[in-house]
Amino acid sequence: MAKMMSDRLKYELAKELGIDQLLRQNNGDWGAMPARACGSLVRAAIERAERAMAQQQQGGGRGW
Asked: Per-residue DSSP letters for 7-60?
């Protein structure tokens, strides 16, 4: 099964959200992260993707 989100992006978003400390406390075990923290991470990833798509469409890129 392919990864949906790169590890680099997950760690970057975790740092932006301030949950990277929780991740370090759990020795990098994403499975030990609280559901709320993971939900925040997913929400941030979706918002980032939506912004990127909007910018691409405004920049004259081809739509879907």
From this structure: HHHHHHHHHHHT-HHHHHHTTT-GGGS-HHHHHHHHHHHHHHHHHHHHHHHHTT
Is the separation of the CB atoms in 28 and 34 below 8 Å?
no
Judged against a pLDDT cut of 70, whether residue 3 lies above it is answered with no
- Give the model's pLDDT for residue 63: 52
For the chain, the domain total comes to: 1
32-50: per-residue pLDDT in tens? 999 999 999 999 999 999 9
| Residue 38 belongs to a domain | yes
